[in-house]
Design a protein that fits this description.
Blueprint lengths: L4 H16 L9 H27 L1 H10 L1
Helix pairs in contact: 1-2
Amino acid sequence: MTCGVTSVFAIVLGHLAYGKKLDGPGGRGDGRAIAGIVLGWLLTLCWLAAWALLLANGDRLAELINSL
């Protein structure tokens, strides 16, 4: 629904949270920051792949939609 916009926020805010390290290495919240970074990048890659497939197969998709 958000077309990958929220993944950009996850990446940026994950990096900001991981950079703070208020409690030192292994402090509280490091795991959540890393999860945000990883999931943000994975979602970004999925959206890029989806757009690449859509652009490569746009004619077939239009035919499918018109046949419905």
